[in-house]
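Ligand-bound model needed. LLP.
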Amino acid sequence: ARPFIDYRDGQLMVEGVSAAELARAHGTPLFVYSQAVMLDALAAYQRGFAGRQALICYAMKANSTLAVLRTFVQAGCGLDIVSGGELERALRAGVEPAKVIFSGVGKTRAEMRLALEAGIGCFNVESLPELDVLSEVAADMGLRAPVSLRVNPDVDAKTHPYISTGLKGNKFGIAHTDALAAYRHAAALPGLKVTGIDCHIGSQITETSPYLDAMDRVLDLVDAIEAGGITLEHIDFGGGLGINYHGETPPAADALWQLLLAKLDARGYGQRKLVIEPGRSLIGNAGICLTEAVFLKPGEQKNFLIVDAAMNDLPRPAMYEAYHAIVPVQPREANGEIQSWDVVGPVCESGDWLGRDRQLAVQAGDLLAVCSAGAYCMSMSSNYNSRGRAAEVLVDGDQARLVRARESVEDQLRLESI
Ligand code: LLP
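Prediction:
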C-alpha cells in the first residue's frame, strides 16, 4: 500500500489532498493530519490485542484537538487524561466516561471531584498523599474512587532523560519497593476501590527490552499483591512506544504486544483485562506542519532559512533537540541548488530552530513540511512572542476539514484587561 503522506506528480499529498492547496486555503503555519495514518496506527494495536480483553486509552496530551479525539473515540478508544481541562475535552469528544483513566502526579481536589462526578473508569494514583486525598474527596461524595497505583518498575527506557519516567530518580510513580505497602494502605481506605496496577516507563521508546523488563517487574508485583489478598482487575502497561523521526526502528505495536502477551500468558495473566496509554505512536506520524520560507539569510558560517513556523508551534527541537524531517512541498527541479540550511523561526531566541544543517533547494516563498508533527507539537504550542496558534486540518481521503481555526490576536487578548 502507498503511504498516506507522500509525493504524487511532484506534489506533497496528504491522502488525496494537495498540501500546497491546503496551505493556500488556510495559510501557514498549518498542521495537517491524516485520518488514515491515525487509524492505521491504531489498527496495529488492535491486531496485537485480538481476542484479548483490552482497552486502548489514547494519551490525549500528545494531541488533544477535539477532532483528533473524536476519531480515536469513534474507533473504540478510551482516553488517558492528566487534567481537568483534558477531562472536559474528553467528554466533549464524546468518550464514554468509563473508558477514561486519569494519570498525573498532581491532581487537585477539584479535578478529582470533576472526574468522580463524570464517573471515569480509573484514577492512576502516583503517591501516598494522593491516595489519602482521593479517598477523602470520594468519601465526601459518598463514592468509592476506582484506583490503580502507578508503580515505578525502575527500568531504563533508554530514551531522552526528559521523557524517561520509569527510573528511580524521577517524580513519577510509587517505588517498586514501596508498592506492596501502598496497596495495603489503599485497600484500607474508605473512599477507594483498588482495581488495577499501572506503569509507564517513558516515551519515544524504540527498543523492546525495556518493555519486557518492565512487564516482568510489574508481574512480580501483581503476584505479591494478589498473594496479599488484593485482587487486581486490570493491568495498565502505559504508553511510550516510539516512532520513526529519523531512521529509528521501533518495534511495531502488534509485534511488541505479541512478545508481551506471551509473557502474560506464561505467567498466567493472559486473560486479565489490559489497558494501555499510547500517545505518540498513534498520532505522531499522522501529522505534518506546513510552513512558508520567509527569508533566506546565507552567511559565512551558516545559512539560515527563516520560516513562518517557530518554537511556539513546534517546541520539540528547542526543548529536546528533537529531530523532525523537513521536506519541500513542491520539490524544485533536479537542477535547483541544494544548500545546507539551518531552518529557524522568527521568535527572538537562538533556541528557536526547527532543523539544523538540512540539505534543501529552496527559495523564499516556498512551502516546506515539518514531518512527524502530529504528537506533542500543537498540544505543546504557546503564544510566545504573541504569536497565534496555528490552524489544523484533518484529512480523510479526498476530504479536508478545518478542525481548528487560526488563533487571532483578538482570541489572545480576550481574557486580559488593563
Ligand atoms: N501515560 C503517561 C502516564 C504518560 O506520562 C505519557 C506521556 C503517556 C502515557 C503517553 O506516552 P507516549 O505513548 O506518547 O510516549 N513532550 C514529550 C513527550 C512527553 C511524554 C509525557 N508522557 C515529547 O515531545 O517527546
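The first helix runs from residue 19 to 26.
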